[in-house]
Amino acid sequence: MKIRTVLFSAALAVLGSLTAVVPASADGISTYYLTFRTGNLPNADTEDPVRVTMFGTAGNSAPMQFDRDFNRGETWTSGPHRHPSFGTVGYISLGKGGRESDAWYSEYVDIHEEATGRVYHCAVNEWFPKESLTRFYACS
Ligand SMILES: [Ca+2]
After folding, report:
1. pTM of the entire structure?
2. Distance (Å) from CA 102 to ligand 1 centroid
3. CA of 112 to the centre of ligand 1 (A)
4. How remote is the CA of residue 54 from the centroid of ligand 1, in Å?
């Protein structure tokens, strides 16, 4: 128990030093825009819901769900989304529901953080099958 407490404190200290170098708005709330690129391939579009959670050095976003038609060859931006800053974005989980049994080809998800001006590129370049599926993708 003692060792766990020490490790936890050390982890908090590391997180604290990481967040200290990331500029955020005065109230600690950041504004994010998410851009989804759907491939220009036959059947690449989907009517199934798409879900994203963003993971950073200081926590993660709430799970977000997008209930809309993602069209073939489309680049679509969602936002603004206001959320407590979670530091430098490292990866996302990207999922697609299976309600409509509609496969989807995602090329990438870009995350624009307004306060820092940073754009994180999360390359996907994969099919999501008809069934519900969630995978993790690195962002840089
Ligand atoms: Ca499709």
Report:
1. 0.81
2. 4
3. 26
4. 24
- Cα→Cα distances 45→13, 17, 95, 124, Å: 44, 42, 14, 15
CA distance 22 to 115: 10
N residues, the chain: 140
Q: Where in the sequence is the domain holding 14, given as residue range(s)?
A: 2-138
Distance 90 CA to ligand 1 centre (A): 28
SS3 of residue 91 by DSSP: strand
Total number of domains in the chain: 1
Buried b vs exposed e over 30-58: b needs ≥16 C-beta within 10 Å?
bebebbbbbbeeeebbbebbbbbbbbbbb
**9: CATH:** 2.60.60.20
Chain segment 70-93, per-residue pLDDT in tens:
999 999 999 999 999 999 999 999
Tokens for 17?
């030093």
